[in-house]
Every structure is written in structure tokens, then in C-alpha cells.
Design goal:
Helix content: 10-25%
Radius of gyration: 16 Å
Strand content: 35-45%
Order of helices and strands: EHEEEEHEHEEEHE
Oligomer: single chain
Structural class: alpha+beta
Largest sheet: 8 strands, antiparallel
Length: 171
């Protein structure tokens, strides 16, 4: 993979996240990481001068095992894949790393740097430093139908904003 400058980063975030999905991964050693599939998130900028910091926003429900790893580490990664890995992402999104080595049951190979774990087969990886977290709260919803449609168990997500520090794309 080659590193690119964030200023050269161009994509349709709706397609990349909502339609193609991504893996949220946190941890830095082979024995201490976990990943989950996500189809909710945002990419943009906030805070700072000259256009703001490039940021990614992720959402994790309290019962997800990956939340523990995001909480315990300063960094997380977002890995994006070609269509041929959709079944692997589906598996990783429907099984818990608490119960099994779910990555071993896919075609994916984890890689580790000094900040976060990610996957060799990804076509793009964002390495993000956590800046902010906030629990989504029921009382803050203006449109209450969102609660009915997305939170029947009242298991509201925690939102994490991370500064995109590094971007890698397949050569």
C-alpha cells in the first residue's frame, strides 16, 4: 500500500460506507485487537483552522466487543474493500470476536503498525486518532421515529470522532 496525502483523498463517503461497508478495527498486537463491520459513519472536517481537521466519525453500540478495543486504544483504523470481500465483511459483522477468532474464518490478513491494526486486502485504510466521544442520548432526538426504527432495544451508539492521520491505498 502507498501512503497518500489527505489533501489528495477523494471519494463518495455515502457509497464507501453505506453501500460497500468498512471494518472498524482497534488494537495494536496480534493478541489484542478486534474488528467489526460498519455501514454507518461520516467523513469530513471539524475543528482547527484552514479548513479544519480531516476526520472520520464512527458509531459503536455498547454490546459490540470492538467497543472495548476502541475505548482502550488511542487509534482506530477504517479498512475498505473491493466487492470480492463482501462475504468476509458480512461474516465479521455477524459474529463476535469475543466468541471466536472470527478473522481466521475469512480471507483477510491483519497487519499491525504502531498505531492500529488493519487488513492487507483493503483497497484503502484510514488511520485515525481519537479526538472525542459522546454517547447518543434518547432525549436528544428531535425526530423520535429514528429511535423506533433503529433503537428498539435502547442500545444507543457511542460516537467517536477521529482525526485522519494517515491514508493508505492499494498500489
Amino acid at each position: 500500500m502507498k501512503k497518500i496525502d489527505v489533501k489528495d483523498f477523494v471519494l463518495n463517503p455515502y457509497t464507501k460506507i453505506a453501500k460497500e461497508w468498512m471494518l472498524i478495527t482497534a488494537g495494536t498486537s496480534k493478541d489484542s485487537y478486534n474488528t467489526m463491520t460498519a455501514s454507518w459513519g461520516h467523513l469530513g472536517s471539524i475543528w482547527g483552522h484552514g479548513g479544519g481537521k480531516p476526520t472520520a466519525v464512527i458509531y459503536i453500540r455498547p454490546q459490540r466487543y470492538t467497543k472495548k478495543f476502541v475505548e482502550e486504544n488511542d487509534y482506530f483504523s477504517l479498512s475498505f474493500f473491493d466487492e470480492e470481500y463482501k462475504n468476509d465483511l458480512s461474516y465479521l459483522g455477524s459474529h463476535s470476536g469475543k466468541d471466536e477468532d472470527k478473522v481466521a474464518k475469512t480471507k483477510l490478513t491483519p497487519s499491525f503498525n504502531d498505531k492500529a491494526a488493519y487488513f492487507n486486502e483493503a483497497n484503502m485504510v484510514l488511520i485515525c486518532k481519537k479526538l472525542y466521544k459522546q454517547d447518543i442520548k434518547e432525549e436528544n432526538f428531535i425526530d423520535k421515529s429514528v429511535i423506533e426504527e433503529n433503537y428498539p432495544l435502547k442500545d444507543f451508539h457511542t460516537m467517536y470522532i477521529g482525526e485522519i492521520e494517515e491514508i493508505y491505498i492499494k498500489d
